[in-house]
C-alpha cells in the first residue's frame, strides 16, 4: 500500500489516547473467534476475521468497574436500579435523539435471544416472519427453528449500492400476511444505514398491513461520516406503537460475552407479551457483571468510542484503497455503517463453493461465507475490520496472494 495513504491515516490518528494498534493474543481464552476452527470443521491456523466481536480491549472505565465488582467477591442475584436506565436513556438521547421512558425498558441477555422470544410471543406456528436478505443469519434460523414461515424481501444490488424493493415488500405483506418484520438497522451484512424515507416507507407499509416490527439496532453506534442512524421508534408515534427497539452495549463496547441487551417497547401490550414469553423461557435477571459493564460503558465509554470510530475509519480507508489497487477481481460494497464489510467475489469466475475454498485453503482466512446470509448472498464474503491495522493488512495481503 502506498505511503501516502498510510501517512495520512497516521496524521489524523496522532491524538488517539487508546492504543488500538496493540495486538492482543486471544488464543487459549475459549474465544469463539480464535479457538474453535477445528470444532467448526476448519483447518487450524486460519486468521479469523469472521464473527462480530472486536480485537480491542473494552474501555478502561468498564474494566475498572468489573475489577471493583470482582473484588467485592459476591455474585448473588442482581437487578438494576434507576441509574442503570438513566445511563442507557441518556446515551440514546445524546447520541441518537431518541427519547424513552423507564416503563418501556425490557432487559434481555442478548438481541438474538430477544428476537427469538419476540417471534414466539407475537406470532403463531406457521405464521409469516418477513426478513430482507441477505441478512444476519439468526433472522432465518430463529424463524425456522420456531416453526414460523420465512418470507423474504430480497434487497437489490444496483450500481454497488443496496436498495429496498418496496414493490416486492408490499406484495409480500399482502400475499403472505407476515405478522412480524425483522428490521436490521444498520443492516448486517450489506452495511446500509437506512434513510428516514426508507424507514418511514417500510414502517407505514407495516402499519397499513398489520405487521409488527422488531428493529435490531445493535450496530447503531457504528456509522461512518456522512450518514446518520435513526432509531425506528423515534420516527413517528404510530410506528413506535408497533415496534420493539433492540439495542445493546455488546457491539459498541466489545462486551458480547457479558450478555446484556436493552429493548424499548412503547406499546404495553407488546411489552407484556414479550415479558411473558421471556418468563416462560426461565430467564429473570441479567448477570452481575453484564449489568455493571453495560452501565459503566454508557456512563464513561464515550471517549473510547469516539477514538475507536476514528480508527475504524482508517481501517475502512485502507481496505477501500487495497481493494481498488490490488484486489481488482473483487468489489467492495461501500459501507455506511457497522464494522463488517461485504464484498463481491463473483468477478473471480468461481462457484460459491470454490470461492469459499480459496478463502480458507489458499488465503488462510476465516471469513463469513455470503451464502449463510440467505438469498442474494451467494458469491459474497463478509470480513470484520475491527482489529489492529497490522492484522487487517495481513488479511488483505493473504487475500491478494490467494487470488494472484
Write a structural description:
The chain has helices at residues 3-12, 32-35, 60-72, 82-96, 111-122, 138-145, 166-176, 196-208, 237-240, 249-253, 268-280, 288-300, 302-326, 352-362, 389-403, and strands at residues 47-48, 105-108, 128-131, 149-152, 156-158, 161-163, 180-184, 212-216, 243-247, 261-264, 331-332, 340-344, 365-366, 368-369, 380-384. It has 404 residues and is an alpha/beta fold. The chain has two domains: 3-59 and 302-403, Alpha-Beta Complex (Aspartate Aminotransferase, domain 1), CATH 3.90.1150; 64-300, Aspartate Aminotransferase, domain 2 (3-Layer(aba) Sandwich). Strand 11 (331-332) and strand 12 form a beta hairpin. Helix 4 (82-96) crosses helix 12 (288-300) and helix 13 (302-326) runs parallel beside helix 15 (389-403). The longest helix is centred in the last third of the chain and has 25 residues, at 302-326. The chain starts with a helix and ends with a helix. The mean pLDDT is 96.
Characteristic key phrases:
14% strand; Aspartate Aminotransferase, domain 1; single chain; globular; alpha/beta; 4-stranded antiparallel beta sheet; 43% helix; Aspartate Aminotransferase, domain 2; 404 residues; 15 strands; 7-stranded mixed beta sheet; 15 helices
Summarize the structure.
With 404 residues, the chain is of the alpha/beta class. Helix content is 43%, strand content 14%.
> Judging from the principal axes of the Cα atoms, what is the shape?
globular
CATH architecture designation of the largest domain: 3-Layer(aba) Sandwich
Number of strands: 15
CATH topology of the largest domain: Aspartate Aminotransferase, domain 2
Amino acid at each position: 500500500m502506498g505511503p501516502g495513504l498510510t501517512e495520512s491515516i497516521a496524521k489524523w490518528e496522532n491524538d488517539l489516547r487508546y492504543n488500538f494498534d496493540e495486538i492482543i493474543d486471544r488464543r487459549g481464552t475459549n474465544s469463539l473467534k480464535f479457538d474453535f476452527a477445528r470444532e467448526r470443521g476448519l483447518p487450524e491456523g486460519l486468521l479469523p476475521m469472521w464473527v462480530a466481536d472486536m480485537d480491542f480491549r473494552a474501555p478502561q472505565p468498564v474494566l475498572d468497574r468489573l475489577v471493583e465488582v470482582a473484588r467485592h467477591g459476591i455474585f448473588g442475584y442482581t437487578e438494576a436500579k434507576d441509574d442503570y436506565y438513566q445511563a442507557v436513556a441518556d446515551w440514546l438521547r445524546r447520541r441518537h435523539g431518541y427519547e424513552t421512558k423507564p416503563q418501556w425498558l425490557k432487559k434481555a441477555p442478548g438481541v438474538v435471544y430477544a428476537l427469538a422470544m419476540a417471534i414466539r410471543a407475537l406470532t403463531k406456528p406457521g405464521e409469516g416472519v418477513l426478513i430482507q436478505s441477505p441478512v444476519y443469519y439468526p433472522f432465518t434460523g430463529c424463524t425456522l427453528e420456531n416453526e414460523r414461515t420465512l418470507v423474504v424481501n430480497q434487497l437489490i444490488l444496483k450500481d454497488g449500492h443496496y436498495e429496498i424493493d418496496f414493490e416486492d415488500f408490499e406484495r409480500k405483506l399482502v400475499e403472505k400476511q407476515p405478522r412480524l418484520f425483522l428490521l436490521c438497522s444498520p443492516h448486517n451484512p450489506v452495511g446500509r444505514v437506512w434513510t428516514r424515507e426508507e424507514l418511514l416507507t417500510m414502517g407505514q407499509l407495516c402499519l397499513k398491513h398489520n405487521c409488527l416490527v422488531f428493529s435490531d439496532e445493535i450496530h447503531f453506534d457504528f456509522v461512518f461520516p456522512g450518514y446518520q442512524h435513526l432509531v425506528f421508534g423515534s420516527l413517528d408515534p404510530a410506528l413506535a406503537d408497533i415496534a420493539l427497539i433492540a439495542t445493546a452495549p455488546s457491539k459498541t463496547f466489545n462486551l458480547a460475552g457479558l450478555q446484556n441487551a436493552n429493548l424499548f417497547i412503547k406499546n404495553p401490550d407488546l411489552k407484556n407479551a414479550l415479558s411473558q414469553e421471556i418468563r416462560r423461557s426461565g430467564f429473570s435477571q441479567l448477570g452481575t457483571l453484564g449489568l455493571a459493564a453495560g452501565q459503566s460503558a454508557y456512563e464513561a465509554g464515550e471517549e473510547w468510542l469516539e477514538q475507536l470510530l476514528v480508527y475504524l475509519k482508517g481501517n475502512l480507508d485502507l481496505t477501500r484503497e487495497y481493494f481498488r489497487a490490488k484486489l481488482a477481481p473483487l468489489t467492495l460494497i461501500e459501507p455506511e455503517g457497522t464494522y463488517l464489510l461485504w464484498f463481491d467475489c463473483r468477478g473471480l469466475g468461481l462457484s460459491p463453493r470454490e470461492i469459499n475454498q480459496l478463502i480458507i485453503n489458499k488465503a488462510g482466512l476465516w471469513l463469513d461465507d455470503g451464502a449463510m446470509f440467505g438469498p442474494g448472498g451467494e458469491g459474497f464474503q463478509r470480513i470484520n475490520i475491527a482489529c489492529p491495522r497490522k492484522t487487517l493488512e495481513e488479511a488483505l495481503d493473504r487475500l491478494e496472494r490467494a487470488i494472484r
